[in-house]
Amino acid sequence: MSGQRKPARSFFERGTLSVARALIGMHLVHDDGRTLRAGRIVETEAYLGPRDLAAHSSRGRTQRTEVMFGPPGHAYVYFIYGFWNCLNVVTGRAGVPHAVLLRALEPLGDLTESTWGPGLLCRALRIDRRLNGADLLGDELWLELPQPRRRTVRIARATRIGVDYAGDWARRPWRFFDRDSPYVSTVPSGRRARARAEAVRAAGLVVRNNGQQCRH
User: Fold this and answer.
1) Domain architecture of the chain: domains with CATH
2) What is the pLDDT of residue 196?
3) d(CA 146, CA 166)
4) Which of 50, 51, 70, 208 is the most interior residue, by most CB within 10 Å?
5) Terminus-to-terminus CA distance in the chain, angstroms?
6) Greater pLDDT, 214 or 98
7) Are 57 and 68 in contact (CB under 8 A)?
């Protein structure tokens, strides 16, 4: 599943909006030592703190946001609502707290869990706060370049989700997504359900009445 085609560190040192767009189509991989789980990134959001009032770093340098101020190419994982973990890619130069939130993945391999939404993708890939600060060019949680695709990825952009409290910053079109992917978080559920059913069939799985999955 994983070809270990990791980008150079300089990939993360570019402008955050450029990184947020370039991440679309890349693969996120987590190897927990027992299982390799992966997905293709199809939706991201850029956060340009500390001026960006939608960014956690707008509240200053704290224990929670310390990773955002560090070197680029590391994971900023935070916990919200007492239930969800969310994964961000730290970007820009050290000392400038910019990051890109990963919002949705298209499952790869045998991954059949829900991956549309930042909390769901972390749950599916078993990503939690233990991976906060992890080097995304390392051997446990990493990003890699996909094999060349025949079809060009059509990337669209829109305003970010759930940041109405940020005033004018909420209207910045800093959410990027693959306009053809049914796994983007805002896609109608019917379209996504059809895509998931096709993926399950392609993986050689059947769904029992109790919702469990097994191989033919």
Assistant:
1) 9-186 (3.10.300.10)
2) 78
3) 35
4) 50
5) 21
6) 98
7) yes
